[in-house]
Amino acid sequence: LQDILIRWHRMRGHDTLWCSWEESAAQLAERPKPDAMVVIEMIFHMASLHQNRTGFLDAKLARFFAWAHAGLAEDGRLFLQTLNIAPEFLTDPAHRPMFERIYHELPWLGFSTREQILRQAAPFFEVVSAEDHSSDLVPTYRFWRANVEAHRPALEEMIAPGIFAYLVKELDQFIELAETGALGLNRICLRRRAAPPPDRPGSESTVLI
Prior knowledge:
The protein is α+β, with helices and mostly antiparallel strands. It has helices at about 1-10, 25-30, 50-55, 55-70, 85-90, 95-105, 115-120, 135-150, 150-160, 160-180, and strands at about 35-40, 75-85, 125-130, 185-190. The radius of gyration is 19 Å and the shape is globular.
């Protein structure tokens, strides 16, 4: 999918890079700093649910917002569309069965909380707007799921069987989380601060053993 998107943009003459944000310094060094960045549902790929509980995601979010701050022009905007887990999903024992099932069956899935994003962004950005659009999730996911079933034979020919099964399982898990209210959708606009604190202390995080 990424390869298709890259080729689509290049066909239209867009200046397009395909690389990790963590490895982009050399590619971006000779380009002017942009006035805005858009990040769509990337953050839940940064860490697993278990890694979030250990504080790893807080540290990685802090690095990401420092990178975005350094890469944006003065007064630049950072737009985030992000899937967020409810804070109690990470800490309340009542959610442990689903947490453990996701961790063992779909270990690559990980979500931040909305509060984590705003807390780790705060030294580098101020909030312009933060909208909760969680009501969009269930109808969107059910629409996707219906289309998967409608085109299953063609999809099974295009995608390796094991990968296809995991994609369906992942989508079904998203639907379950959204239906129970554990998963939300937030669209956040941030404005770059003039400068981050000169000596920022370590990220605040909760470590559960």
